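User: Okay, second chain of the day. Same drill as before: sequence in, structure tokens out.
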Amino acid sequence: MKIFLPGLVFLSALCLFGCGGDTASSTPESATPAPPAQTLPKIVAFGDSLTAGYGLDPKQSYPAILQKKLDADGYKYEVVNAGVSGDTSAGGLRRLDWSLEGGGVRVLILELGANDFLRGQPVKETRRNLSQIIERAKSKGVRVLLAGMYTTTNAGDAYLREIDEVFKSLASEHDVPLIPFFLENVAGKRDLNLDDGVHPNAEGTKLVADTVYKYLKPMLDEDK
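Assistant: Same drill. Structure tokens below.
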């Protein structure tokens, strides 16, 4: 998988105060202060290049499309794209707390593992890392939607069977909803992927967002 690491940029609000003079006297009596911006609960899309939107404009990534779907259906959430191209389950575990900083995170969409399997990492190690991510998120009151993943590998049939089982067992053990296959209806279809045959193109990513939304929406409806 061809990998690049995009920068993650966060903007903090700056309050600018005028220097000198009585600021109150320059404000019309009829003026009323603007209400503070609404702070929305967050859904963190946490994953690798498939979440980051490798090869796409940021507006074409699945988290951006998911945001539009939520807005259109009247759900009041902010979707945060915490995808890092090339990330593994171990890398995700190391950066999890930072990704959940600031509070207000209600749901973590966990999409990791494909890079582990491409590199032939022991499935038990990937399982341990994903399990710790789920446990740590839940300990902070964050609900987890686990995305099942498969990948091409030369590691043999036994390894493929382990991959097939790991996400099901994790979902059962931690009682979290599971997307059986994150790239459902997209993987292996040339017209829905970039030239590398691995990453969804803009049209493929729309289908990925549809799949995620199908499993996310019932979780949000439970909170109503």
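The CA atoms of residues 148 and 167 lie 6 Å apart.

User: Thanks, on to the next one.
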